[in-house]
């Protein structure tokens, strides 16, 4: 900081100090005048300036950097440097303070070094002055040439761009110090591609021509060089720029053929494709917007050309049906244009924008064609077998075959109509407009061969028959009426107002007339002349005891031609009323007027259904009883498995059974005969558990021994039928038991005369049983 103050105070003094610091090995910095005037004593301080050294010096090492000096004047003082680069890069002479560099420095790697200077005692290494930090700056020399940020650049520009259109900016970097004049300046120039592009001092590449055509050349390669503005004239950096031209719509489509010929059958469906037109467009697909049109010929309304956006093809489609018998060939001229083309960049106008199209129509065996697309006939109702109308179809082919007609059964399920060979339609039954006012028939026309048989080609047409109305329905009540009147109603009391409708088509001026068929009643009918009538009490005071319901016939006439009159019965119920004229009790209409036919039918169906269900239940029970009786007469063969799953103590368990008795029974004793059974015995499944017995006195045979003896005898002396096995599992286990198996399977049956070999013929289900009862020849020899 003091150096900066001295520089501001006196420039001349500072220059003298710099010279002294650079030449004198032990310079003494004079006190500045300002300091001498303000301080009475001299302050000890470090004496040096900021040090500099050039990078990459060519002189021999070490290189002198500068001198550090303190105002401490002691013979035993020495200078010491501290820092990361001390010892390897920089060293100082202890006695003089001269600083040297022992390596060549590169500013591009380390531009400056930060060190710390100390003055210490030679003997004790104690600091004699406070440490001071200083900086050694490395001066830049122009020793680097420019290097591009990328070796390869990619750029794009629209084709046919104007001169001066920017393409891309490239950048080369010089590692030298940019603060030193011209050390980091870069000059650019194009080594390859200069006939189409140029580059300015900032590295911006731009076009120098407006004729860059992508269809001629789509890519350009530019080689750019970057050089130092000064210094290294022989060294430079290069980079490659690949420029791709972007396509614009600047070319018309061109037909690949001058003439297109197609052959199509005459029955081709309207709107379907009959052929494709192909063009070539040098532009890219996104810029191909070809439009096809017919420019010459009178068939613009017969054909249309649609563009396929995926393939840029023109698809010809017929807009009308083709007929070989009328026109066999169509010839017209087509044109291909592009309405989106940029005429400003249009390179050239093609001469192959038009082509000739020839369409040859081939003959096919077509079905008959009706003269009309549909037919509409009218027929008055209630008329039988009049001629309703005629349909006509012809063979459009040159053969002109005869035609046969028929009505599809699905359109005339009631078979009301028939059609003749000439196409005349008649009705077979009288038709009622009030049931079906319209009939829609589907009439088929088929070509017939010389023998009168259909050839397979057919056509259909819709025939709509409208049934015209006749005045054949008399008027009737507009709704069902249920009038009620008090038995004490006064004379002139309104009972009900009635109106009428007619099922026939009612004209606007229809007039219904109302009247009573008899005057012998207590009611009066008044015609209101607006198609309504009022029923009122004529005399008053009805007698409910004599009649609770009155049936009043009403005659209703229309004004049709001829006029029709209908009789409608109005059922009036006589009710009891209170003094205010409110109904208190009325008989049910159903009980007085009787049950309707629909109700009777419903009741009958319910009774019939219940009867049928009862009969089915009775038959089912009877069949079950027969099946059970048949099952008892022919018993089935079952296997019996009796399981005793109680575990005992074996030999040591003497609280449940007397094992000695079981053993004695096994080795001797008489066996009572077993009663004979049927050939196929009926065996029942049993799951038995032996009862628990209290401890008994041993010595005599118990109930268990007797039961086992009986079972053994029954198994051994069954001579009346095939044997079956009863498996008894006794799970009484114990150590050193003297009782062996108690099953009858192990019982000797040598005293039985029954031969059980027939069990082998009973099938696989009795295989195990047959093996158990099979006699061993060795045993027979022993006995």
Automatic annotation (TrEMBL):
One term of GO molecular function: calcium ion binding
Transmembrane feature ranges: 599-619
Single GO biological process annotation from the record: homophilic cell adhesion via plasma membrane adhesion molecules
Segment forming the signal sequence: 1-22
Membrane topology: Single-pass type I membrane protein
Keywords attached to this entry: Calcium, Cell adhesion, Cell junction, Cell membrane, Cleavage on pair of basic residues, Cytoplasm, Glycoprotein, Membrane, Metal-binding, Phosphoprotein, Repeat, Signal, Transmembrane, Transmembrane helix
Main location: other
InterPro entries assigned to the protein according to its UniProt record, in alphabetical order: Cadherin (IPR039808), Cadherin-like_dom (IPR002126), Cadherin-like_sf (IPR015919), Cadherin_CS (IPR020894), Cadherin_Y-type_LIR (IPR000233), Catenin-bd_sf (IPR027397)
Location within or outside the cell: Cell junction, Adherens junction; Cell membrane; Cytoplasm
SMART domains linked: CA
Residue span(s) of domain Cadherin: 78-148, 149-255, 256-370, 371-477, 477-584
SUPFAM superfamilies named among the record's database cross-references: Cadherin-like (SSF49313)
GO cellular component: adherens junction; bicellular tight junction; catenin complex; cytoplasm
Subunit structure: Part of a complex composed of AMOTL2, MAGI1 and CDH5, within the complex AMOTL2 acts as a scaffold protein for the interaction of MAGI1 with CDH5. The complex is required for coupling actin fibers to cell junctions in endothelial cells. Within the complex AMOTL2 (via its N-terminus) interacts with CDH5. Interacts (via cadherin 5 domain) with PTPRB. Interacts with TRPC4. Interacts with KRIT1. Interacts with PARD3. Interacts with RTN4 (isoform B).
Function: Cadherins are calcium-dependent cell adhesion proteins. They preferentially interact with themselves in a homophilic manner in connecting cells; cadherins may thus contribute to the sorting of heterogeneous cell types. This cadherin may play a important role in endothelial cell biology through control of the cohesion and organization of the intercellular junctions. It associates with alpha-catenin forming a link to the cytoskeleton. Plays a role in coupling actin fibers to cell junctions in endothelial cells, via acting as a cell junctional complex anchor for AMOTL2 and MAGI1.
Record protein name field: Cadherin-5
């Amino acid at each position: 900081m003091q150096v900066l103050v001295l520089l501001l105070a006196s420039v001349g003094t500072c220059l003298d100090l710099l010279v002294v610091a650079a030449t004198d090995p032990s310079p003494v910095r004079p006190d500045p005048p300002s300091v001498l005037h303000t301080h009475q004593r001299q302050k000890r301080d470090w004496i040096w300036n900021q040090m500099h050294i050039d990078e990459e010096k060519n002189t021999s090492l070490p290189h002198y950097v500068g001198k550090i000096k303190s105002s401490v004047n002691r013979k035993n003082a020495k200078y010491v440097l501290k820092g990361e680069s001390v010892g390897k890069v920089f060293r100082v002479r202890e006695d003089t303070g001269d600083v040297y560099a022992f390596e060549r420095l590169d500013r591009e790697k380390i531009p400056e070094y930060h060190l710390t200077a100390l003055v210490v005692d030679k003997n004790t290494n104690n600091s004699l002055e406070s440490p001071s930090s200083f900086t050694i700056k490395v001066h830049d020399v122009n020793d680097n040439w420019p290097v591009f940020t990328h070796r390869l650049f990619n750029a794009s520009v629209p084709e046919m761009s104007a001169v001066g259109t920017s393409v891309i900016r490239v950048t080369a970097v010089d590692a030298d110090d940019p603060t030193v004049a011209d050390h980091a300046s870069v000059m650019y120039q194009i080594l390859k591609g200069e006939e189409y592009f140029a580059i300015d001092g900032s590295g911006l590449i731009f076009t120098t021509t407006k004729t860059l055509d992508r269809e001629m050349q789509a890519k350009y390669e530019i080689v750019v060089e970057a050089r130092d503005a000064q210094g290294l004239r022989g060294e430079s950096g290069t980079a490659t720029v690949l420029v791709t031209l972007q396509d614009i719509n600047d070319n018309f489509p061109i037909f690949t053929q001058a003439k297109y010929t197609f052959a199509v059958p005459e029955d081709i469906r309207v709107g379907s494709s009959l052929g494709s037109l192909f063009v070539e467009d040098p532009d890219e697909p996104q810029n191909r917007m070809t439009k096809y049109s017919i420019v010459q010929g009178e068939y613009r309304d017969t054909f249309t050309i649609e563009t396929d956006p995926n393939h840029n093809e023109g698809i010809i489609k017929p807009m009308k049906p083709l007929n070989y018998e009328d026109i066999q060939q169509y010839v017209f001229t087509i044109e291909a244009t592009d309405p989106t083309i940029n005429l400003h960049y249009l390179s050239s106008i093609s001469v192959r924008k038009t082509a000739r199209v020839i369409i040859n129509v081939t003959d096919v065996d077509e079905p008959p064609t009706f003269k009309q697309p549909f037919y509409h006939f009218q027929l008055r109702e209630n008329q039988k077998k009049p001629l309703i109308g005629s349909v006509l179809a012809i063979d459009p082919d040159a053969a002109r075959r005869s035609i046969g007609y028929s009505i599809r059964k699905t359109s005339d399920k009631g078979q009301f109509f028939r059609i003749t060979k000439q196409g005349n339609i008649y009705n077979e039954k009288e038709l009622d407009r009030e049931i079906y006012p319209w009939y829609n028939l589907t009439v088929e026309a088929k070509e017939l061969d010389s023998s009168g048989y259909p050839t397979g080609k057919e056509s259909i047409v819709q025939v709509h028959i409208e049934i015209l109305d006749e005045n054949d329905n008399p008027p009737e009540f507009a709704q069902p009426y249920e009038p009620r009147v008090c038995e004490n109603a006064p004379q002139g009391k309104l009972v009900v107002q009635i109106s009428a409708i007619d099922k026939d088509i009612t004209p606007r001026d229809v007039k219904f007339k109302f009247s009573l068929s008899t005057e012998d009643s207590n009611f009066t009918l008044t015609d209101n002349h607006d198609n309504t009538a009022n029923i009122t009490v004529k005399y008053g005071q009805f007698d409910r005891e004599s009649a609770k319901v009155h049936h009043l016939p009403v005659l209703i006439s229309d004004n049709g031609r001829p006029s029709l009159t209908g009789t409608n019965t109005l059922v009036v119920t006589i009710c009891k009323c209170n003094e205010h004229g409110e109904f208190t009790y009325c008989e049910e209409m159903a009980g007085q007027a009787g049950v309707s036919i629909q109700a009777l039918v419903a009741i009958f169906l319910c009774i019939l259904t219940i009867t049928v269900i009862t009969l089915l239940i009775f038959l089912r029970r009877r069949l079950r009883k027969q099946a059970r009786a048949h099952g008892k007469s022919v018993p089935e063969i079952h296997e019996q498995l009796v399981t005793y799953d109680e575990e005992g103590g074996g030999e040591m368990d003497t609280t449940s059974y007397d094992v000695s008795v079981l053993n004695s029974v096994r080795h001797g004793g008489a066996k009572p005969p077993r009663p004979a059974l049927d050939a196929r015995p009926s065996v029942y499944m049993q799951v038995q558990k032996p009862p628990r017995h209290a401890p008994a006195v041993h010595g005599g045979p118990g109930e268990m021994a007797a039961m086992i003896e009986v079972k053994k005898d029954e198994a051994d002396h069954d001579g009346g039928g095939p044997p079956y096995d009863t498996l008894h599992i006794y799970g009484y286990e114990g150590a050193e038991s003297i009782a062996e198996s108690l099953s009858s399977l192990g019982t000797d049956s040598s005293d039985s005369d029954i031969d059980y070999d027939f069990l082998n013929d009973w099938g696989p289900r009795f295989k195990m049983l047959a093996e158990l009862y099979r006699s061993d020849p060795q045993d027979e020899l022993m006995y």
